[in-house]
């Protein structure tokens, strides 16, 4: 039995600060964009302090070809900037350049309980029947994620629906650390799961999450897809023969139709109810081309800008390095205090 987590503390002592990350484990998808990246930009534009990260150490919890990992990390950074992240206003970097993540991740491996980790549904989904052969890192993933967030005393984390359980675990780790050491050191983070598409589903199966590691490229829209590819993928997306209903309730047992309506709503900045009101009774022969046009109009400028930025990888590396310096300046003193709280001697002259 794992030990019970005790009462949460308040966040009154912590200034509002946002942290979130995306794995460079493949090219980013429409799911990453609508569930995470688009929100990241909104939070930056609201004027909250924002720290965003390409979590390359999370990516290697499953095999990554080294050259591809470098390429995907740069491409991820280009996607952030092309989508509207301004490296002067947000801190943008790759995780492995700031060692505080790995250091605090280890401490949290010693705070988190095996029972908590065993309940993580994402580990069960990713490991499947192969749990004896997956990396230890994949199992410990949520403790490193807690470290990513708490190394900055971040108070809010914008994520897609699939990360909700990991954020609950982050809260549990923060609370247990505070209780174990009798401190009020870590904030209890708040997930921000907002918008009409917090869980974008596969275009081939409306019960499965759209994912960059899905073996079928037809299941997802990649941020690198050109206009023609986006249109084709949407036109070929799995649907059913019924027209769109006149209420959202009518989409209850139609996961593929519901998914396309949600994607339309999120891209247009409307509610799903509004989309249903606009397209009630429409056949997919009408709705899919409208969705394809909207997706191309929203995504094509991002893809074009990504391609431009990718022509100068040295500039991307410079931006990531500068972001890492700024991130380090926040995380280092926090992690140094953690060592002190835990009882580790820090006597080196630096
Ligand atoms: N389908 C999705 N709908 C909404 N949000 C999504 N996110 C991912 N997929 C969807 C959100 O994107 C952020 C970054 O996710 P990640 O790259 O760290 O890992 P993931 O959640 O495991 O995403 P993928 O695409 O499925 O990656 P792989 O295939 O490498 O495992 C998170 O905020 C996530 O919620």
From TrEMBL:
UniProt keyword Protein biosynthesis present: yes
Enzyme Commission number(s) of this protein: 6.1.1.2
GO cellular component, one term: cytosol
Enzyme class: ligase
Matching PROSITE patterns: AA_TRNA_LIGASE_I
Catalytic reaction list: tRNA(Trp) + L-tryptophan + ATP = L-tryptophyl-tRNA(Trp) + AMP + diphosphate + H(+)
Short motif ('KMSKS' region): ranges: 209-213
Localisation: Cytoplasm
Keywords from the UniProt entry: Aminoacyl-tRNA synthetase, ATP-binding, Cytoplasm, Ligase, Nucleotide-binding, Protein biosynthesis
Gene Ontology annotations of biological process type: tryptophanyl-tRNA aminoacylation
InterPro entries: aa-tRNA-synth_I_CS (IPR001412), aa-tRNA-synth_Ic (IPR002305), Rossmann-like_a/b/a_fold (IPR014729), Trp-tRNA-ligase (IPR002306), Trp-tRNA-ligase_bac-type (IPR024109), Trp-tRNA_synthetase (IPR050203)
Pfam families the record matches: tRNA-synt_1b
Protein's job: Catalyzes the attachment of tryptophan to tRNA(Trp).
NCBIfam families: trpS
Designated name of the protein: Tryptophan--tRNA ligase
């Amino acid at each position: 039995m794992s030990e019970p987590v005790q009462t949460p503390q308040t966040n009154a002592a912590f200034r509002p600060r946002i942290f979130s990350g995306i794995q460079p484990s493949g090219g980013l998808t429409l799911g990453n964009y609508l569930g995470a990246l688009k929100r990241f930009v909104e939070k930056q534009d609201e004027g909250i302090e924002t720290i965003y990260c390409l979590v390359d150490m999370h990516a290697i919890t499953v095999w990554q070809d080294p050259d591809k990992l470098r390429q995907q990390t740069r491409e991820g950074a280009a996607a952030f900037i092309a989508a509207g992240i301004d490296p002067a206003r947000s801190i943008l970097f790759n995780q492995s350049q700031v060692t505080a993540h790995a250091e605090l991740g280890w401490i949290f491996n010693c705070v988190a309980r095996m029972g908590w980790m065993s309940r993580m549904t994402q580990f069960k989904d990713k490991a499947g029947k192969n749990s004896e052969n997956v990396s230890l890192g994949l199992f410990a993933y949520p403790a490193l994620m807690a470290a990513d967030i708490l190394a900055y005393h971040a108070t809010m984390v914008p994520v897609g629906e699939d990360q909700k359980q990991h954020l609950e675990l982050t809260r549990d780790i923060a609370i247990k650390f505070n209780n174990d050491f009798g401190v009020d050191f870590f904030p209890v983070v708040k997930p921000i799961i907002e918008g009409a598409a917090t869980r974008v589903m596969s275009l081939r199966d409306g019960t499965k999450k759209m994912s960059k590691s899905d073996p079928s490229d037809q299941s997802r829209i990649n941020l690198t897809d050109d206009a023609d590819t986006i249109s084709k993928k949407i036109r070929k997306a799995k649907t059913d023969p019924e027209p769109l209903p006149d209420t959202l309730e009518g989409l209850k047992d139609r996961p593929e139709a519901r998914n396309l309506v949600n994607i339309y709503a999120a891209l247009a900045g409307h509610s799903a109810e509004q989309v249903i009101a606009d397209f009630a009774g429409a056949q997919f022969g009408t709705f899919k081309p409208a969705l394809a046009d909207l997706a191309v109009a929203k995504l094509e400028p991002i893809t074009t800008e990504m391609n431009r930025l990718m022509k100068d990888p040295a500039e991307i590396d410079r931006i990531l390095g500068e972001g890492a310096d700024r991130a380090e300046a926040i995380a280092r003193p926090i992690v140094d205090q953690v060592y002190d709280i835990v009882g580790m001697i820090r006597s080196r002259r630096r």
